[in-house]
Design goal:
Length: 434
């Protein structure tokens, strides 16, 4: 999850593999205005004659008809009294209905609608608010609303998300949920712009989109560029689904969710789906959550830039003494030997769990600390800065600076510890315990 980091101290929270982009809505407002669209100019709002408010069922019918029939939008909008529009422009109304119409076509021929009961409405709003993050803006900020759902003669795709819209309530008065719709459109344009930048391989545009998410000084321009490159390459190599086939699963101002149906697994052996979510935060900024793994290639232990040891391989005591010298401390537990050197600790699973002397063992973990003599691979070393690390593994910060790889002898977890200035003080590469 790409998220704003407001301190020089490294955030050590481990997040499940999600990518989050946090941006100011003011940037969105300047970038995604409706000017230039094919819609009728908003000045028509001021030309509507005074009309008597219509009841909720009629208001729901007018909106539902606009969704079902494109050629009815003009007439239905004109029949909604100005007082019940909540300043919603024709252009926004048209665009909103157009999006819901595209979703509705997956189900088939819509013939009616229903207003959800309190239990169904509560369940729907709970789905919008799902996620458990206290920083998410809740849907109740938009006030009291009813939820209307389209119904079909024969539903061609019951697995697709139901097509729903809201009607604002104020006591016994009802109106189009204008701010709800306007904010839904802003969020919709934002997440789709993200997809378009990726699909167009517009790394420069993607950099601009994600830059405000990384306001800490550890995120150099080169790091932002590395992230944009990584995201673009991931979609190019792993995502099979065309952008026009991404499925809109949830469409609300505080939460938009897309499902991408076909994505290769990390090992390329299977095809799965993945979800990308845009959430509105309580500080009126967006967080874009995209589950992009931080891939780590196999890493070996090095001394003075020379590849020495492979994780999971078996080494004799004499081999290790020859390569590394006599350890400062050698300790034994049943089936385990620990060799400690200055700035280095090795753990090996021994072949003989009972003998007082060990002859060989399988390398299960390496810990580097406060010494630049040793490194993992030829580029991970004590004292390197987090910015340098992110140039190698651009998404590692999204996973609490933890990554993993498999090499045929096991799965190994890579993790880092930093000082207050973002410099690495400890690196651990250890076998994953299942």
């Amino acid at each position: 999850m790409m998220h704003v980091k407001n301190s020089k101290r490294i955030n050590k929270r481990t997040r499940f593999g999600v990518l989050a982009v946090v941006m100011c809505i003011c940037m969105l407002l300047s970038s995604f205005g409706l000017s230039g669209c094919r819609f009728v100019n908003d000045i028509t709002n001021g030309l509507k004659p005074a009309q008597k408010p219509v009841p909720e069922a009629e208001l729901a019918r007018l909106i539902a008809t606009s969704i079902i029939y494109e050629d009815s939008v003009d007439d239905c909008y004109a029949k909604i009294p100005q007082i019940q529009l909540e300043d919603l422009s024709y252009s926004e109304f048209y665009a909103y209905c157009d999006i819901l119409r595209s979703c509705s076509l997956k189900h088939g021929n819509a013939v009616s609608f229903k207003i959800l009961d309190e239990s169904e409405k509560s369940k729907y709003f709970s789905q919008i608010d799902s996620g458990g993050n206290v920083n998410y803006q809740s849907i109740d900020v938009y006030g009291d609303m009813d939820v209307v759902e389209l119904s079909y003669d024969v539903d061609k795709d019951p697995s697709a998300s139901p097509v729903r819209f809201t009607i604002a309530k104020n006591g016994d008065s009802y109106s189009v949920a204008g701010k709800y719709i306007s904010d839904s459109m802003l969020a919709y344009y934002y997440i789709n712009h993200y997809f378009e930048m990726i699909d167009d391989k517009n790394v420069t545009g993607l950099e601009s989109l994600i830059r405000l998410a990384y306001d800490s000084d550890i995120y150099l321009n080169s790091v932002i560029n590395a992230k944009a490159d990584y995201i673009t390459d991931y979609y190019r190599l792993k995502v099979k689904t065309n952008i026009e086939d991404y499925e809109l699963k949830l469409f609300a101002p505080t939460h938009i969710s897309y499902e991408i149906p076909e994505v290769f697994s990390e090992d390329g052996d299977s095809i799965n789906s993945k979800n990308v979510n845009l959430r509105l935060l309580k500080n009126d900024s967006y967080t874009l959550e995209d589950d992009i793994p931080a891939l780590v290639d196999e890493i070996r232990f090095c001394k003075n830039q020379n590849n020495l040891l492979r994780m999971g391989s078996t080494y004799t005591a004499s081999e290790l003494y020859r390569l590394l010298g006599t350890p400062i401390v050698e300790s034994r537990d049943p089936g385990l030997v620990v060799l400690s050197y200055k700035g280095l600790t090795l753990r090996l699973v021994t072949d003989d769990p009972v003998s007082e002397k060990w002859t060989s063992g399988r390398l299960s973990s390496v810990v580097l600390r406060n010494d630049e003599t040793y490194s993992l691979g030829k580029n991970l070393y004590i004292g390197m800065n987090v910015s340098e690390l992110l140039l190698i593994y651009p998404m590692l910060d999204e996973f609490g600076y933890t990554g993993s790889f498999e090499n045929g002898d096991g799965e190994f977890i890579l993790s880092f510890t930093f000082d207050d200035y973002g410099n690495i003080t400890r690196i651990r590469l250890g076998e994953k315990i299942h």
